[in-house]
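tool_call predict_complex ligand=manganese (II) ion
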Amino acid sequence: MDRVQNILKDRLDADGFGRLTAIDCAAMHAFVADAIELCNPDSVFVCTDKPGDHKKIREMAKNGGGEHSLAMEGHTYHFDGQQDQGRDKEVTRYLLPKGVDLGESLNSMDKTEGIEEIRGLLKDSMVGNQMLICFWCLGPVGSDFSISCIQITDSPYVAHSEALLYRPGYEQFKKVRTNGEFFKFLHTQGELDETGCSKNVPLKRIYIDLEDNAVYSTNTQYAGNTVGLKKLALRLAIQKASNEGWLAEHMFVMGVHGPKGRVTYFNGAFPSACGKTSTAMIPGQTIIGDDIAYLRKTNGKVYTANVEQGIFGIIQDVNPKDDPVIYEAITKPGEVIFGNVLITDGKPYWMGMGSEIPEKGVNFSGEWYKGKTDADGKEVPPSHKNARYTVRISALANRDPLADDPAGVPLGGIVYGGRDSDTLVPVEQAFNWTEGIITKGAALESETTAATLGKEGVRTFNIMSNQDFVSIPLGQYIQNNLDFVKGVANPPAIFSVNYFLRDANKKFLHEILDKTVWILWAELRTNGDVEAIETPTGYIPLYKDIARLFKQNLKKDFTEQDYIQAFTIRIPNLLAKFDRVEKIYRAKVPDTPQIVYDTFDAIRNRLKDAQAKHGDNISPLTLQ
Ligand code: SPV
Ligand code: MN
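tool_result ok
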C-alpha cells in the first residue's frame, strides 16, 4: 500500500476509510492525507450525503461547534469575533508562481512564501479536535454546471452552513471521475477565545492557490472567509470558466413574471449590501439563487444556474414590509442559522426588523445593552450591519420550480446595480451586449458598505460586482464577457439599475419595493413589449409604462414629477463617472481591451452632444 493509503488507514476509522476510498480519486486521497498529517486532528469524520450525516453535523454545531440553539425549532445562532465580521480583503491573497502576474488590482503574493506561511499556521492546528471532511457540488448535481468540491474544516458551523448552502456532492464525486479536477478547501478556526471565536486575529489568512485549485484559510470563522464553496470557490471558478469559455459571476438568478404567465429569467450583479438578495426575492417573482451564478451556452442560447441551494443573506432591514418572503422563511420553524444578531430570551433580533428590539441581550460584542460603547467610544449596535441568516432556498415560498434543473434556465436579461446617490437613473437598457458589458458591468461603481471590512460610504469601482473575486487579469475578464455571446443569436439584454438615488436633502427618492417596477420594466423590454426613450447611455422607460407598473404592482401613484426627478439625465455626473472609471483602467489594468476605451469615448461624445443641445441635466421628456 502506498504512503497516502497508509496514512488514511492509520488515521481514519474503518467506516471513514471505507467512505473516503469509495471515491476513486487519488488526488483527493492525497489532499486528505496531507491535511491530516499537517493539521493532526484527534479524529476524522467523513460526511456523505446521508441525512443522518448532516444531522450529526448539525448536532456537533449545536454542541460546542460554533452554534447555539434558539427557542424556535431548528433555529440556531453563531457569533464571529469582533474583527471577523466580513470578508477580509487585506489578508486574502492569490498565491502566484514566479512569472505569473494578475495586475496590481488583485491582491497576490509569491506562492512558495505563501504556502510556507499558511502551512506553518495550519501545522497541528486540529490537535484535540475533530476534522470534518465534506463533499459538496457547485451547481445542480449531475449537470454541465456541476463542479465537485471537498471541504475540510474543524468547524461544525462551517460544515453545517455548507449543508444548507450547497448541494450534496459525495455521490456525485463517486460517480463522476474528476480526473483530479475538483476544488479543495482546507479551513481551521485556529485557537478560540472563551466565547468560541477565533482569537489570533493578526494571523488570519485566506490564501488561494490557483494552480492547484486549493484554498486555505485559518484564524477566521466568518462564512465569506471560511465556507470554501462561497467566494473562495468563485475565485477558482472564474479561472476555470476563463479556460473553458463560460462565465462565473457574482449574480442572482430569478424568474421575473411578465404578463400572461410569462417568466423571463434574469441574472443580477450587485456589490454586497446593495439589494441583490432582496431583488431576487421581490414578491410575485420566483427565486433560483441570490449570490453566485454560472452562465453557459448550449445550441446558441445562454443558460444560467444557481451555484448554491441556500442563502447567506444580510438580515438588517429584513422586515415584513420590505422583504416579506425572506422574513416569513426565517421566522418560522426550520433550519436557520442567525449570525451576529442580538439574542434575548432565546430569540433573535436585528436592526430594521420592523418590531421593537429589546434593550439588552447578547451579541457579537458580548453582553449588550442599549447605549453600550466600544473601545473608541462608538455606540455598539444591537446587531452587526453585516449580520446574516443562512437558510435553504427550499424554505422560501417563492422558490422557482426550475431552481435545481440540471439544464439551468434560459437567460433573458442581466441587471447591474450599485449604490449610487446621484448619477444613474433607476433603470436603463444598454444598446447592445458589448455596450452593456462595458458601460454597465465594467463601469460599475458603488458606495462601500459593511459587507467587507473598511470604511463605509466611499465610491469604489467594482467591475461586474465581481472585483473582489476575479482571479484572472481584469482585461481578460472583460474580454471573456464580451466574447461570451459569440454564436448566440439573441444575447441577453443588459440593464443598469439604481435603487439609491437621493434628493438634494440626501433623502432616498424611492422606497425599497419600488425596485419591483424597475425589474418588471426590464422584463417587458427584454420581450419587446414596450417602447423606450433613447438617451446617450441607453434606453429609459416612458412615463406611462412606469406609472402603470407602479399602480398595478404597488398600488402607488408615481407622478410625472417623480418620473422627471428620477430619470433626469445628469450629464456632468455621467461624464465624471466615465472619466473616473477610465482613469482606473489606464492606471491599473494594462490589458484593458481597446474597445473599452473606444466605447467610453463614444459614450462621452454622445453625452457632450446632448449637453451642448439640452444643457447639463436633461429631463427625459425632452428626449421623448
Ligand atoms: C457578499 O458579501 O457578497 C456575500 C457574503 O454574499 S460573503 O460570503 O461574505 O461574500
Ligand atoms: Mn455576495
